[in-house]
Amino acid sequence: MVLSTRLLFKQPSLLRGRSDVVTVTPWLAPIVWEDTFDPLLIDAMYKPMNLTIAATVFSVGKYIMFLKDFLETAEKHFMVDFRVHYHIFTDQPTEVPKVNLAVGRQISVHEVPKLNRWQDISASRMKIIHELIKQRISQEADYIYCLDVDTKFHFRWGAETLDRLVAQIHPWFYDMPRDQFTYERRPTSTAYIPNGDGDYYYIGALFGGMVEEVYKLVETCYKNIEVDSAKGIEAAWQEESHLNRYLLYNKPTKILSPEYLWHDQRGKTEVIKVIRLSQVLKNNAEVRENV
Ligand code: GAL
Ligand code: MN
Questions:
Q1: Which of 34, 240, 270, 286 is labelled catalytic?
Q2: What would the DSSP string read from start to end of 36-81?
Q3: How far is the CA of 261 from the centre of ligand 1 (A)?
Q4: For range 233-256, the mean pLDDT
Q5: Are 186 and 233 spatial neighbours (Cβ–Cβ below 8 Å)?
Q6: In what helix (H) or strand (E) does residue 209 lie, and over which residues does it extend?
Q7: Contact yes or no for 154/74 (Cβ under 8 A)
């Protein structure tokens, strides 16, 4: 679709806005909530750019059970009508479900070992994503989004999320005071954030942006995880803690509201007009290698 002047200047899009939530950060990055953007206008702007969007998802051990729903619902709601390249990391390549993909969308499966602790599986993602960006994604895609597999899409998750460096406010912390954020608090860790510091508490289950920006992020995080690990330190919430530290000093250029990754366990709250993607309820004892 060609972006016409008529479309740009149609009035309704200019009247959008929210007064019940904060929609911009102190460094002037937008915080994306329903009713702060016009999806038609966004699509008309981004579709002609002919973008390729990579999405990484890890489905290791029993987490393979979440992959089918993830992919099927992503095909309905995730970057619809864009070129999407899913990169699935798993220890069971033969168990990857066959899912009908729309035109322009494809899946690559990458075999990874199953580590013994879920904390290690989670943290190892930074290094693995770093390697794949270096090997392939830097030549193949414009944007990359890194998502948890134990989730399902329910509503549009579209091009309004595209920007240089993108992170999401954690659904359990968006309405909490900063002193309750679960940052890493030990100064000996490279993920340390002192009390009183910090902008938002970002979720580790979703981050992304332009490929070269995400490359810098995962590189810093995996190297810091290795520095800590050599000292016998594991940050409070593994790579999520390192992500939070990185984003404190490298501010995201766009922030997603918790609509973009909610949690089924949390009932819809007043400010959540739509749930776009949500973490499914799971029995940790059943799906994790260790508890
Ligand atoms: C929990 C979530 C964890 C971690 C933690 C941070 O709700 O399940 O993955 O993000 O919050 O405090
Ligand atoms: Mn998860």
A1: 240
A2: SS-HHHHHHHHGGG--EEEEEEE--GGGGGGHHHHHHHHHHHBSTT
A3: 12
A4: 98
A5: yes
A6: strand 202-210
A7: no
